[in-house]
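Bug: token stream looks shifted between consecutive jobs. Job 1:
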Amino acid sequence: MAPCCHSRRREARPISLRQLTFFGRTLTENRLISSANYVRAELPTRLAHRLRDMQTLPYVVVTNPHMSHVYELYYKAFETLRRVREIRSVEDNDRYCRIISQTLQEHLTVIPRLAMGVIECQSLMRPDETDRFMNTLLRSRISRRVIAEQHLALTETFHSPWHFPDAKPHHDPNADFVGEVFLRCNAKEVVDECSQRAKSLAQAAFGNECALPEVKLEGHLDATFPYILSHLQYIVGELLRNSMQAVIERKFPGKPPPVEVLICEAPQHVIIRISDQGGGVPKDILPDLWSFGKGPRSHVHLENLVQVPKMAATMQELKASNQAASGHVQGAGKDGRLVDGSLNSLTSRPPNLRLGMGLPMSRVYAEYWAGNLELHSLEGYGVDAFLQISKLGNKNEQLSTRASMDAV
């Protein structure tokens, strides 16, 4: 039996935020090795399922140069990762982490190449089939990067200077982060940070003379929940960016109306509503608002995507190397923990570089942890966007469907 077929016979084992933190809260060598072997089993399995998805596409689609590029990357990664033997020691784990890191770096071209391939092939597949394919591939990509980056972060913690083999506990129970999971993610702080970055981007694009809308916050401002910070920053950042840009481009005389953000905390969810008076979504765009490849402006999106050669898991353009060269590092957490600037910053593209992926990608990220994103457009007035987040951390990652499954 071919290795890819054998791996496809295995089902992926979804994991919850609560389970991700379990390995790290009391980090021991055995738990680190257990985490490594979970990742070792999951990555080739999840890649095999996506390879099969690509193999079932029409031949003319798979031979598209962008789609073919992604397929070759996935197959190379599958062949590399499936050959890794069982992790039995810290040394084995360190070697495995180097393989994971290299694979993650190589796959930074996947999202823009996928997007360009989908747009170029939009006449060869039905729009619903195209969006289903993209949705599944992106969820799987998020899932692989989540478990891989979580394990890399745990390994970094294990090797940190303050981590001693006989220390008890091995991880500070009061720390804000366990690997990549932020235990006390505060919606207000995320909105504040994202709004400042959105204002900076808008000012750079429209000039210092441009009147920017104020972002008004109200509601349950102390609401906290466990979440992967870069995911929430991406979603909120895209929504605020869209709202601010719409208000600015409507050119109100005098001071523009504010973008209003309401945070509502319920027993199991946190809901963030972002409301603007930017005139609503244009009629020609509204029917294809959540589509990756269809729409009246897809040719413009294709031209713009060519200018974005690499994107991280949250679709941010990579700026980490530039920041490292200049000595500027973004995203230091409250505990001083450094977060990768390429994941933690808002999309650095200028507002006029529209990619047509912001809202569809945001919904994929929202639904990944059993949340939801809805948008209501009031023509001639503005937009209300509703982001619902599961606050307990006990929902498994949603790999292919929106059906919610509680973690064991």
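Job 2, same session, no restart:
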Amino acid sequence: MNGFASHGLDEGAFEDKSGITVGLRTFDAFPKTKPTYTRRTTTGGYATLVLSFFCLFLSFSEFRRWFAGSETQQFSVEKGVSQTLQINLDAVVAMRCQDLHINIQDASGDRILAGDLLKKDPTSWAMWVNQKKVHHSSNTGDKRRREDMEQEDTHVAHVLGEVRKARRNYKKTPRMGRGTQGDACRVYGSLEGNKVQGDFHITARGHGYMEFGEHLSHEAFNFSHIINELSFGPLYPSLLNPLDHTIATTDTHFNKFQYYLSIVPTIYTRTFTDRIPLNRTTHSPLASANTIITNQYAVTSQSHEVPEQSIPGIFFKFDIEPILLTISESRGGFLALCVRMVNVISGVLVGGGWCYQLWGWGRENVQGGRARAKSGGEGMLHGRKEEDDEGESVA
């Protein structure tokens, strides 16, 4: 009757088929819209480009944050047994080498003749005092730059990078020019001491300790000094310690420089796990390519003139804290990164879609209101137009 049969068509082909497929449509959480009911606009294209840019930017930021990792600092009681402590010193004193006496005495009563274990090179004081690396506390700009450098040395990535690319030895003493007499002494090297509280002394020959030899004249005293390196543990010259590249000067012969150091064992690690490899014998942490074992210290210093009955010199008093600071860098799993990126992208798309729909709804209301106001608010269905036409025809 309607021509379906003549064309070989059946009305049943246009009805929903029965079966499991029809039942599953009830649970469809993603309803579809026919292409004939959608319309692409230039405004929608611009909105898509903006949302795509935000998705790429936020995804890149999330990936960079994941790749950099996060740092955590944890204090704990130091585990394991350690009996020795390596002391690294590189200092220049404004006195001749044969006039200096260097000694270490710890709380256990042991006395180490550090002057016999450390190297002494005659040098010129002027060659060291004008170096760019030397930090002058009176220079405000230099102080800020040094604080920034010390802050960098608290990050695991920076510490591991500096340790890997730097050499672990002392630089050679610069040669003096011809005819230049050495008025200073460079004392440098590493030595082993007991891992207990101790004192490190640099005094004048014949003063401070009972020893045989000529008594040094007081006019030769000048304990102005530059500390190029003072660290505890393995030597890492590239790491900046609080006293590295510092200078202290005096105009008097009897002056006493005192430094009080509080040493904290520190581990920088990037193991991506919660466990750090330990020595089976001492149960102490082991160093590796991603783990650096060193010591940090805080220092308080003072300098004052002393009477002739006192002993002038440079005195380092160090104490070892019974705690361990572990600075670790960790990175989440790749699956967690994918989940965060999916959340970011979906959030941007959903939020952007809502904003675009609200903006379109508001624009349609504003434009529709203006059109109704322009036409007087009455359309063809009101009947007024027909009445006007009838009046004109009657007339």
